[in-house]
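Workshop exercise sheet. Pairs work together: one partner reads the sequence aloud, the other fills in the structure field after running the prediction. Swap roles for the next sheet.
Pair: D.N. / O.F.
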Amino acid sequence: MKQGIRRGLQVMLAFMLLAAGSIPFGAAVSAAAVVISQSGSVVTATNGELAITYDLSDGRGDFKSGSTVIMSDFYSDYGVVGSTSRISSYDAGTRSASWASIGADGYGTGGKQLTITNTLASGSTITLTIKMYENRSFVLAGMTVNKSVSQTINFMEPIASANLDIGAGSDKRIYTTPYTNNYDFGVAPVNDFGNSQNGNDRPYGAGETWGAFNGTSYWVASMFDNTNKHGFIAGAATTFKWKSMQYLRQASTANGSLTGFSVYNAGGQQSGTSVSSDQFFLGYFSDYQAGLEQFGEMYAVAEPKLDWADDVPIGFNTWYAYYTYPTADAMLPMTDYFEEHLKSLGYNYMNLDCCYQGVEGATDLQNLEDFVDYVHGKGMKAGTYSAPFAIFDDLAATVPGTSYTFGNIALKDASGSPIKSYINTYIVDATHPGGRAYIQWVMDNYHVAPGFDYVKLDFIDLGMYDGKFYDTTKNGMQAYRIGMELMRDTLLAAPQDIYINESIAPLLPGGYAHGRRTGVDTTIGLESYPGIERQAFNAAASWWTNGTLYAYNDVDMIFPESVIDGFNKVTLNEGTLLSTAIALGGGHWLVGDNVPFISEDRMAILQNEGILDLVKKGNAAKPVKMTNFYHKLEHSPSAIYLTDTNGDRIVGLSNWDMNNTAPVTLSFSDLGLSPSRAFTLTEIYSQTKLGTYTGSFSRTLKPGESIIIRISANASSLPTAPTNLALGKTATASSTWTAGAGYEASKAIDGSLSTRWSAENGTSSNQWLEVNLGSATNVNRVVVSEYGSGSQSFQIETYALQYWNGSSYVNLSQNFTVGDRRVFNFPTVSTSKLRLYVKTARFIPSIQEIEVYNVAGNTGSRIDQDNSGSAYSTYSDIRASIQRMQTFTLTQSSLPRMDVYLYENYVNKLPEDNLYLDIVLLDASNNPVQTLFSAALHPSNIPGAATPYAVYPRLTGLDTTKKYGLVLRSPETLDDSSTSNKYGFAYSDANPYAGGFARLSTNGGSTWSTESSGNRDLIFTIYK
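Structure field:
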């Protein structure tokens, strides 16, 4: 009776404090104490959330939550080198139990530890420890093996069972974690695990096979129900001694119990009379997503995440823009470009990836120092790259600052031969004093001394390979920790603050870096997944690591166009899908694209302040519902969400089907919002208002469409989406497919992407599609969607968007490739007709839709001067000291864009240098006196025929009374007196441009001569 009164008073007091705001809503009112007792041979530990019973008569136990039996008859075991059998807690022997209070620590309060000692007849003692805390939905478990003689142990399994269940559920699945981000997170039904690459320490030459999933998850795993969200989470609470895994065996029926589960340590070996496992986290949660988040928080108790007090890294990275061609000639002007056009929006990092070439003739250190000084001089931060566990040098070479050779410090196999990694390098043994000296040297000389502010540590998974270490008492995990601790501590001790980012790396251990990549390189696809979707589902699956294991997640680089891929560049839909994944991924926003060459509709993504606002907060979105991605090759989750700092919900909706529409419905209750309250929905990419909704929001996503919605209790002043002026109008075309009905021009303005206009069979170039608006109409935006043949395979190469001026068609814009969606913004024109004119195509052109708009306040650029209508010739001699220049004048004080007709005369190799395009101010003699703009094109995928490449100088404040020049150069491309494997240009000797002429320099730009008596012009277009 007294207990009941006391309980009632506690509840009343808690209610009063809750009403007064002294207790946060959702906090526990009272905690159930941990109670451990023994009755006969059965020991029971409970905390009101979980119950563990252990039978000392047989060395097995049960794990329950309420009436739900999670595991029954679990046991412990271990393995020794040279034996395939296991020594288990249920082997013949005697057992005892003891328990003690551990009080409060980082895991909880009122903690107690249950210790089960299995003294086996074989001479071994297996000691299992289980820690339980008040009001916690998890326990911590570990084991120690003792024997009077030394054992060499290679496997320790504290908790193993022939079953695992989570209670009632109609959609039970597993969630698995990869060894490193070279591999993938996955989800699958409990009775159909599907496939996997099953990757770990991969030796050189070993392939990656897509085959049946072997049931091994690394670091953490879950069994959960996708409907009621109940779930079991198990993973590594510490990783100080071993690699940590979970084993799952498939259920025999849909929504049935797993037929096997365990948590275990393996990887290498440890010897002694006493060997211990790491600690493991095992918990049962009403919301498995909250369970994963708590797992991350609890891992960070023993190994806190590395906090970062500065801003989220936003800026540029060289890799996808230049690969192995990041010269100083490319990167210093790129820094200028970011400072001028993007720094004010928060872009602050200019990062070198692999293979910086700097300036020919300078030392590596001098090049790095000069780059850092230049970036710092712009008030920005400089980043760099290394792969410190990889040996790129000859094994006979001497490790800098030591008497050791690289052969000495290389990790060996059992026979003493150096182990070669999957990237064709040998591996630094961090237990070797020379190995540590080399890691220290790399950190000091390539990162700290030059003054870098950001370091990307790549391929650090190599440090976790197991082998025969110099220190024979260490295994792969311990060697990895030695190396990573040295890297971290050296970088943190630098005079400047350095952001440390792990690239190809294991998920755990944490605590060595501020950020970590969530997936493999975005350019690498898998099975049916393009690289972008592969990156997206890994980001969605690892939301919980953001802010728990790492300060920020890294969802690789944003490349809205991927200029380096030429004709096969990323489409606008693909770029937007990637943008959504990264913006909601929880941290980094590093542009890996050749920004001066990306089109205006892609630049709009990079300049979208609503997107950047989300990025700067560094929060990660989680899936509303899981799909069976990776293991079963289902699409990435279509809906992911996070809670903004003001309580708004931010929802990313993505249709990963590039060919079909996808209806989606968001239930506000699934987002933690009231189903009876009205909310205002706005869309962040378009900056438009969708309307006011209660309870849910439904939308049919177009093929490949991705949007980001803000759901807010506050009203919005944003405009609604503009009206498509082409709907209900008429359309005509140069030709129409006649082999079947339904491909008429009208199909391109019917508002549906499931219909299309197609030109006639046998046609390709010089086809057109016209939209007749009926009368003069103000227009400043056109959206064109090209048909991709069901496989994102597009045909249009070059084209012009034209408007009718009352007597003829006038080019508004022209370009190279259309793709699934191209948005043209331009100064308002009044016209009755618009036309898409396809100049060249690889196959029959086909357009799904042309949309026409007049958007208040919209602007852009349009053609001002153009000589591309002239017949032209081509020539390819841009190399070494040979440069070409076209002089020109301007009709306005800005130069937003130019189109230059370029090509690459590839025969059997790429040019040795980028192609550089400079805009220069000329003196009265038409010689350059000042470089106003410079940009570099990587040689990959520049077409073999002259093609208009758009470059966006975005120059303002120019003088229309002066003369300017466009210079084409490639100073480090080999001069072999050949025009093969060189950059080329289109030209005409018929004087097609009256405002200037072509000039030639054969001495690297020191002097210039005018060609063809001033009648020669390069082919180009100027926009205003």
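Discussion prompt: The first strand starts at residue 35 and ends at 39. What would you look at next?
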